[in-house]
Amino acid sequence: MTTAIEPTHGKERDDALTVCAISLIAAMLGDTLHEGVGHGALALFTVADSGVVSTVAWSSAVDSRHVAAGGTLVNLAAALVFWIVLVSAKKASPGWRYFLLLCVAFNLFTGTGYFCFSGVFNFGDWAVVIAGLPAHALWRVLLVAGGFAAYLGAVKMAGAGLVRYVGIPLGDKQRMKKLTLIPYTSAVSIMVAGGLLNPLGMQLIWQSALPAAAGGDSGLLWLRDYIPKTAVPERGSGTVGRSYVWIASAAILSLLFIFVLGRGIHLHR
């Protein structure tokens, strides 16, 4: 039987720097899975002999619908894997459970948000997928409607996970706000920074990096309003304490993300 845990009302303090570090790593991982695995690796295994992958795009001489779709599909598959691990990680530390939850959230938000984005603006991965199909306008409507419904479901799932498996009570609004606002600002910052040196031009910052982070991850800002009222912590919360391992890892990976992947990496079969 699950026992509800009373709100801490600010008594437990999470280390902001460590929360930021965990958020940066989770956000970079989601982006790398999207561009590197979902687009790049799939293209090389199927239609392309070579190409360039960066933080904002995969570029090659040959493109296809399934390569365009691969980014979001890999994100959705990764979200499922991370969710299974999160549910199973009963003895993991608060920091690791929080990391797994953010991996679920970032991958889910990218995977579901892209449907709606492409449907509304007729741009991006799923615009490529439906390009040239009969009843194109209907496909766009389906992307918008289906994407919105899927995104809302993703928000509810991530919010419920934050309560049940990270252990943040619904009534603890201070911690809830801190553990959702910091990941959002961290994701926006690292995605914009990672796009500054991309080889395809600065326009991809506002066409790809900024919409994906500022828009796609916006569910973090309002998910607490959509958490099921029946959700209660199933594990002790603890706090995300200061961890120099997380902080150092985030610093190193951020430099690689911006100055190596950000500049573009040439890949060949």
Structural summary, described in words:
- It is a single chain.
- This protein is mainly α.
- The chain has one domain (20-268).
- It is 65% helix and 4% strand.
- It has a three-stranded antiparallel β-sheet.
- The protein is globular.
- Mean pLDDT is 93; it is low at 1-10.
What's the layout of helices and strands?
Elements: H1 16-46, E1 50-53, E2 58-59, H2 65-88, H3 94-121, H4 125-130, H5 136-164, H6 173-195, H7 203-215, H8 219-222, H9 244-261, E3 265-268
Antiparallel strand pairs: 1-2, 1-3
Helix pairs in contact: 1-2, 1-3, 1-6, 1-9, 2-3, 3-5, 3-7, 6-7, 6-9
Biggest β-sheet description: 3 strands, antiparallel
In total, the number of domains comes to 1
Q: How much strand content do the residues show?
A: under 5%
Radius of gyration: 19 Å
Give the H and E element order.
Answer: HEEHHHHHHHHE
Catalogue the unreliable spans. 1-10
Task: Give the CA-CA distance, first to last residue.
Answer: 53 Å
**Helix segment tally:** 9
What value does the average pLDDT take? 93
Shape: globular
